[in-house]
Amino acid sequence: MPLDPQVETVLEIMSAAGVSFADLEVSQARELMEQLAAAAPPGEPVASVEDRSVPGPGGAIPVRVYRPAGDVPPPVVVFFHGGGWTIDSIQGHDATCRALANRSGCIVVSVGYRLGPEHRFPAAVEDADAATRWVAQHAAELGGRTGPIGVAGDSAGGNLAAVVSLLARDRGVPAIGHQLLVYPATDARDDWPSYRENGEGYFLTLRDMQWFVSHYLNDDAERDDFRMSPLRAESHAGLPPAFVVTAEFDPLRDEGNAYAERLRAAGVPATLRCYQGMIHGFWSMAAMLDRGREAMDDAAAEVRRALA
Asked: How far is CA 145 from CA 19, 36, 139, 149, in A?
């Protein structure tokens, strides 16, 4: 299918701005993301938003709690933002989390995990895991329902959601009832056909991914660690049901599709939806892309059904 016309317009704007993470210093890339977040239209209103922190292995972890309207304690979803384990923030995904909370009817807890290169692998995993365990134990305190929680994330955040699900399965706690994985990074070896097909000209590039990984990992051997490449885990049996979102013109398309298939092969209920004509990041571009809004609605409906 050809590139969506709305995506073509977005790519033209990005090309004119000369955006390429691989050509920037980390500080410059983070400043760029802050500028983009500040320029973005405000997210939709929710019943309440609360900034707080939870204990983590490297100190307090900032979180932002989004509560939808309603009188009955809703399920809780822990969300991990994308950004290549190196950039972006809670604020950068504020509109996304507001939309997910409203459409799913769930409390969404967005986690500000530690980033590389200051805090390299597995710091992000450790924070994501610690925050998920804390939220599960304190769901009622947050105004949510006790019981299985959901985990969600996009790109590097989808990677963290998948890894947290593996860790929880192996440990036996917390109980995770669903994983929402939006164009997740699942295999750090970067040798999938979609990297060759979509590695240049579609926002996220192969060079960008190499840049992100170089600022997160300590050495090349860590690419095979399941906490970096959940596709390489020894077993995927017993994991929570998943909804996996991928995009046709995304370098990460094939590894996301492969993860959904690996879950299915292990007997895990997994729905895969590859959105045609879309690029990496489209789910967070709902203000500009009709299919971004469609994907948000689809994902939220899956979360709502799974945790109802």
From this structure: 42, 34, 6, 9
Q: Is 178 a catalytic residue?
A: no
Using DSSP bridges, classify how beta strands 270-279 and 48-54 pair: parallel, antiparallel or unpaired: unpaired
pLDDT digits (tens, 9 = 90+) for 33-81: 898 888 888 899 999 999 999 999 999 999 999 999 999 999 999 999 9
Residues 148 and 270: their CA atoms lie apart, in Å, by 17
- Indicate the number of domains in the chain: 1
29, 214 in Cβ contact below 8 A? no
Residues 84, 285: contact at Cβ < 8 Å?
A: no
Compute the distance between CA of residue 109 and CA of residue 272 in angstroms, rounded to an integer: 24
Domain of 90, in residue numbers: 5-307
pLDDT for 39 equals 81
Element containing residue 179 per DSSP (H, E): strand 176-182
**202 touches 280 (CB < 8 A):** yes
Please confirm, yes or no, whether 280 is among the known catalytic residues: yes
Active-site residue identified among 155, 165, 194, 229: 155
Cross-strand bridge partners of residue 246:
274
In angstroms, the CA 84 to CA 31 distance is 15
Judge whether 284 counts as a catalytic residue. Answer: no
Instruction: Take residue 112 and report the two structure tokens written for it.
Output: 């500000």
- In Å, what is the CA distance from 53 to each residue of 6, 63, 98, 146? 38, 5, 19, 20
Say what the pTM is.
0.98
**Tens digit of each residue's pLDDT (9 = 90 or more) over 75-103:** 999 999 999 999 999 999 999 999 999 99
Helix (H, G, I), strand (E, B) or coil at 114: coil
Supply the CATH number for residue 229's domain.
3.40.50.1820
Of 88, 129, 187, 250, which residue is the catalytic one?
Answer: 250
Distance, in Å, from the CA atom of 93 to the CA atom of 71, rounded to the nearest integer, reads: 26
- Determine which one of 129, 280, 284, 298 is catalytic: 280
Q: No. of H helices and E strands in the chain?
A: 9, 8
